[in-house]
Each structure stands twice: as structure tokens, then as C-alpha cells.
């Protein structure tokens, strides 16, 4: 082999090359071990964050369910619903009163029609009796 310039000195033996290569490999092993440690730590942190994320998702779902329940029982919403139902009740009560008045009127007309019919039957029977007696 020829001479190899390393910094300020020349390396010319294979033994020196082996030492340099061993030092280089040792440095790579240390770097790899450090990276493996960091990767392990990052994986651990990822698992922790995933667990926290799942926990937060459960809390979010619970909060959403509670929000829906609160919206259902919201006092303002219930007041509006009560007002709407009261208005609907007033309208239906008014319609019911009008229908009862109409029913009463029709019942009176029916009664007067029945009386007129009875009177007409009596008059017809009376006329028949007079005609038979003649």
C-alpha cells in the first residue's frame, strides 16, 4: 500500500489502517446504539401519547353525549317548546269551542226540524182523520 494522509501524519501500514477502521466502526456502533436508544424512547413516547389520545377521545365522546343531553334539557329550548305547545293548545281549544258551538247549533236545528216534522205529521194525521170522517 501507499502512503495515506490522515491529518498531519501519513499512515502507511495496514495495522494503522485496521486501527482507524476499528475506531470508525466503534464510532458507528456508538452512533447506532444512541439512535436505537432514541428510537426506543420515541416509541415509548408515541405509545404514551396514543394512550392519552384514546383517553381524550373517550372524554370527548362523553362530553358530546353530555352536551346533547344538556341541549335536550336546555331551559330556553324547553320554554320555547312550552310556548309552542301552549299556543297549539289555545288554537285547538278555540277550534274545539267553535266545533261545540256548531254542534249545539246543529242540535238545535235538528230539534226544531223534528218538532216541525212532528207537527206536520200531526196536521197530516188530523187532515186524514177529517177526510175520513167526511
Description:
- This protein is mainly α and 134 residues long.
- Helix content is 88%, strand content 4%.
- The chain has helices at 14-72, 75-133; strands at 4-6, 9-11.
- The protein has a two-stranded antiparallel sheet with strand order 1-2.
- The longest helix is centred in the N-terminal third of the chain and has 59 residues, at 14-72.
- The protein starts with a strand and ends with a helix.
- The model has no long low-confidence stretch (mean pLDDT 88).
Q: Enumerate the spans where pLDDT stays under 50 for 5 or more consecutive residues.
A: none
- By secondary-structure content and strand pairing, the structural class works out as mainly alpha
Percentage of β-strand residues:
under 5%
Spatial sequence of strands, sheet with the most strands? 1-2
| Largest sheet data | 2 strands, antiparallel
Percent of residues in helices comes to: over 70%
Number of strands: 2
Form type: rod-shaped
Mean pLDDT: 88
What order do the helices and strands follow?
A: EEHH
Based on CA atoms alone, the radius of gyration comes out at 53 Å
Number of helices: 2
Through-space gap between termini: 167 Å
Amino acid at each position: 500500500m501507499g502512503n495515506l494522509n490522515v491529518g498531519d501524519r501519513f499512515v502507511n501500514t495496514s495495522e494503522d489502517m485496521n486501527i482507524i477502521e476499528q475506531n470508525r466502526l466503534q464510532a458507528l456502533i456508538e452512533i447506532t446504539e444512541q439512535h436505537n436508544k432514541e428510537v426506543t424512547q420515541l416509541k415509548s413516547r408515541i405509545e404514551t401519547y396514543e394512550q392519552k389520545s384514546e383517553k381524550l377521545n373517550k372524554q370527548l365522546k362523553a362530553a358530546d353525549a353530555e352536551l346533547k343531553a344538556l341541549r335536550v334539557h336546555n331551559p330556553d329550548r324547553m320554554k320555547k317548546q312550552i310556548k309552542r305547545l301552549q299556543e297549539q293548545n289555545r288554537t285547538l281549544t278555540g277550534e274545539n269551542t267553535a266545533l261545540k258551538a256548531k254542534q249545539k247549533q246543529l242540535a238545535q236545528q235538528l230539534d226544531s226540524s223534528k218538532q216541525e216534522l212532528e207537527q206536520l205529521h200531526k196536521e197530516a194525521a188530523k187532515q186524514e182523520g177529517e177526510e175520513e170522517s167526511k
